[in-house]
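Table S4 entry, Dihydroxy-acid dehydratase.
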Amino acid sequence: MTHDHVRRSQAWFGAAGRSGMIYRSWMRNQGFGSEVFDGRPVIGIASTWSELAPCNAHLNRVAEAVKRGVWQAGGFPLEFPVMATGETLIRPTAMFYRNLLALQAEELIRANPLDGVVLLSGCDKTTPGLLMGAASVDLPAVMVTGGPMLNGKFRGQDVGSGTHVWKFEEDLKAGRMTQEEVFEAEGCMARSNGHCMTMGTASTMACVAEALGMQLPGSATWPAVDMRRFEVAQEAGRRIVAMVDEDLRPSAVMTRAAFENAIRANAAIGGSTNAIIHLMAIAGRLGVELSLDDFDELARPVPTVVDLMPSGRFLMEDFCYAGGLPVVLRDLAEAGLLDGDALTVTGRSIGANVAAAQCWNREVIRPMSEPLQPAGSGTAVLRGNLAPGGAVVKQSAASPGLLRHTGRAVVFDTPEAYHEVCDDPDLDVAADDVIVIRGAGPRGYPGMPEVANVPIPTKLLRAGVTDMVRICDGRMSGTGYGTVVLHVAPESAVGGPLAFVRTGDTVTLDVAARTLTLEVDDDELSRRREAWKPPSPAHDSGYGWLYTQHVLQADRGADFDFLVGSRGDGVPRESH
């Protein structure tokens, strides 16, 4: 095998003398023959596999498929673990560790003899975390997400992971389900390997990675247990070897045009609000100019066309078999809402990738002319004296009648404080009140957990109330629904106006006007600000201290201030 230029990995494996002997010799204890050191591309497979991250627990098998492809194309694959941040088990929230995963992935990619990397992710924070880390190193990279679970099936109906958790909780509280029925439903809801099969954040970020051009066309939606998931992984293994030869790097793929495509695709699929924070963080690593207002402006002309829970009826299997994201991208392109020239990891433009896409079910992927939700009904960015740094609301998951609403604030300093009393039959709360939950932002919780869509007070649920306006500086699961204002910035813990709201104040939400207003005059707010004392830090040492000292606000992607930007793939100094 001959190579036109010296690979980055040859600084290790091609070294003379003792250094080269050490690098090669210890690798050979795994049974590799000497020919793997001949200058062929060394491909890292960064895997977030872990049995503690159920959505990612099958990625070891996906990695085997990637390795086949790398070997086929003449590369040398080496799998390595990076942190698994599964939202289902990890406390206080996987978001608390997204930046640590990104930091770990970046340093491992840079520190090792790699020429390119395949990124294996599943649960929602692992996809942006790996993209952030890969962007900061900027070695050739391609993403392979693990795919969604099979559709949940319970008593003759499809049930969606996450989405039906909230529904079953409400049914249990309202007496419509027994605890035994809930136990039965649990096993029916999560019946295969994979991440959430609703359009939650995991499915959203898989589609966003494809729309960004970082994932092979069509690969976001194949179910985790479908053999085509492994076929596309094998193809990614072949493709990354070619990308090394082409020197095709994330910075050439994830351009401003790619981010605009991803934002519009997110609107079309009814994607999670969490995509906003993750895309802001990834853009920050690449130096791509992206603002919160871009998400509103770019999404306004885009209708929601994918009929998936929580906004619609179907699930990811249905979306996949209808043609998947390539159909949505082709429809956007034909409507003039996609930059078809944006480069992708295929080496071709995104327009060329999806030109032949066909839809097999126009009930699941609606025509642009007959959308699930009309243009302008996607995620809206709100501003006002309650959210000077911005807040967001997912209109497609909200109740239309509450999108303009004025009500009395009922304020809780923490999500836990609300949960302690939400079942109290004597709780002073009415259906037209506005529940305000603070202390759930990046620094305040810390980690900005998915706690904003708190359940309706039990006494109101039993009276037939199905939705209320809720306002929070935390996040909401992409599988959740309801009229919930999220990501209020600045957060209460740093002295954002949310800290000064009191029970009995009047709050006005006007989504059409894109405003969120606390009906309290400026002088009174100033007096409250002067009397306010910041909460004690949650941590005084360890990673928690590092997080609270350096995390940015939600409107800047909640990355660490010292991780913004790219540091490149420079070969570290050797120690031998």
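The chain has three domains: 1-39, 40-150+192-355, 379-539.
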